[in-house]
Fold this sequence. Notes:
Distance between the termini: 19 Å
Low-confidence stretches: none
Largest sheet: 8 strands, mixed
Shape: globular
Mean pLDDT: 96
Number of strands: 20
Strand content: 15-25%
Keywords: FAD, Flavoprotein, Oxidoreductase
Domain 4Fe-4S ferredoxin-type: 110-140
CATH topology of the largest domain: FAD/NAD(P)-binding domain
Protein name: Glucose-methanol-choline oxidoreductase
Family: Belongs to the GMC oxidoreductase family.
Number of helices: 8
GO molecular function, one term: oxidoreductase activity
Amino acid sequence: MYDFAIIGSGVAGATLAKELSEKYRVAVIEKGKNPSYASEGKNIEINYAYGLGGSAVYSLGNAMKMDIKGYKIDNDIYKEIWEELKIKAPEDDFLNDIDKKFIELGFKKMEKFIDFNKCNKCGECARKLCKAKWTPLNYLKQSKADIITEFNIKTIKYDGNYEILDENGRKIKAKNIIISAGGINSPRILKKLIDDENIGKNLFVDTFVTVGGILEDSYLNKDISMLVYKRYKNFILATHYSKLLLSEIKKDYKDVKEKDIVGIMIKIKDENNGEVLDNEVKKEITKEDFKTLVRGVGKATKYLYKLGVDDIFTTIPRGSHPGGSLSLVVDEFEVKEGLYVCDASIFKEALGVPPIVSIIALAKKFAREIL
């Protein structure tokens, strides 16, 4: 019998495993094993990863401190995170020439949980594991929790304690459950336990597009994406090499080389109008979202022209930070006695910026309340 069964091994789940396993007997339950990408949604393509470490295994290492509506986070928690993840901005000599050109245009260096001394600038942050970057796997290794992989939950029973069964008949018993499976899968799991019509509603995804074009020898493909950025009211601009953007450009310029592609990501704080259903995700671009994207594309285009880019191309709208899908159901962290949710699904509104340190902070706050 475990004291806590944490469902999900991503940012929140790994943080909770590290914090709670110092005092309690903890199991971390993960649907997958090796991290793999999944994609859902029609109008907006929503990408996330499942497997040990979750989506943050393929993150770009961005650290941005943000206020989380409805959750007051003590400054000492953020100080602890900055120390544990060794967060800092790159030194000037780490920057490529293209980064320096963006800084001349008013961009600033992004703080990251990346050891720049170990980074080889492969440009593959979003596609492969890397020893230079912190991921939830670091917290999982530091924890004393039992890690149980390839456990696809079929049912969850409650008789004073919880019994979690997978499709192969395996059982895990726990006094308490913490659902930390992310903005898409947490509502699907909670539906196995309670009946509430608001489960899955209020979804946001931090909608983004990447615009760019051809700039000879920019070598953005051999750089850390989002290394420099500029923040506006409801969106941010950041340098971003995108293979999807390359594909769009190749339609007109077949012989273009990766080293000659320059791109700017426009990531917006989108409205909570999406919904997670059992087998699909619905998310539309609202009128206000569209206006924000247009403003962002306009700003990015001006910067690209200043750099010398002539023809501008864009990717389709995508989303990479799903959240809010349980914000109408969960009050603070507790659903009912012994049942909790802690991850981005309980955010009241989109942050519009990379959320990893905010999710860690939320999980540390919850762990301290339990401890």
